Amino acid sequence: MTDLHRRQTLAALAGLGAWVLAPGAAFAKASGSVHLAAAWEHQGSFHIGLLSTREGAGQALQVHASIEVPTRAHGLCVLPDGSVLATARRPGDWLVRWQPGQGAEPQWLWQAGDRSFNGHVLASADGQRLYTTETDAETGASWIAVRDARTLEKTTEWPTHGLDAHELIWDARGGSDNAPTLIVANGGVPTAPETGRVKRDLGRMDSSLVRLDTRTGRLLGQWRLQDQRLSLRHLAWSPDGATLGIALQAEHDDATAKNAAPVLALFDGQALRVVPTPERIAQNLHGYGGSIAATHAGWAVSCPRAHGIATFSLQGKWQGLVPLPEVCPLAVRDGALWAGGLGASLQNAQAATPVNHPYGHGLRGARLDNHWVITG
Predict the structure, then answer these.
(1) For the whole prediction, is pTM greater than 0.85?
(2) How many C-alpha atoms does 156 have within 13 Å on its Cβ side?
């Protein structure tokens, strides 16, 4: 996007009144109320915002507050002060910090042409630093940019030792000195700036999981699956923090192999392994895992192409597919899984009888993006 186009886009959003607060919405969170930061597309325009509902069957999920964004958003992060961070889907050129309910203008950062955002942003525990996955447009190599949360400006950067870096997550168990480390999923899919998301030369695909020292960016470990056509994408910890779950996306040339591919891998800090899906089920999942989450009931991987949530025990045993059309975003609140689909969301989606929340007026016809975050 050119500088002129960026200015025109922001001017157009401002002219449309991009900040919207739902009539009568209050930011005080009443007992039983649920708030989620989310991204969605509606009638050709893209939004991030806060969605709200109340626990219990039949309670509508409503748009509580929202802003329009220039292109499709992907990952979101909520800071301790309530600010919502969102970044564009890869290859993206914008990052925004928005303070719902504060009346302040959103704070935008646009990438120069030599870099693109890869869809995810993570904050330090104190909310002072941000970490974004990015790709160098000239070399294709991926980087972690460390940014000041107040200004959004980059203060340093570290290589991820791979291509197509995607989600990143803290490992509180730490390294040799017990300081938290950073784990990054290198998706490994080669692309080029002139062709955007078009995948190129998949024969040299190289997906990996890396651990980085958060003081220096030094590589502390790197792990790969035997099948290099499995792209490591999204990350979530088990409730006890001992096992990392990774949602997989298959990139095989052969359609049969791609459709039969697993959607979950597990990492115990030492070894990375694939979790097989029963053969009779695997073809229905189409080798595509969207978001991932875990509760004491087990792992959940959203499979939008299968219109359901693939569920596994914490040890990796297949449990079943929970139906939900075009399901993608997953989040955990008070030990219960919340899942968003087309037209409705599920509360306690892993239960024998999940609670259904239909979409209110502002969300009817909307398509939620891959992720949402519980804010209360």
Answers:
(1) yes
(2) 8
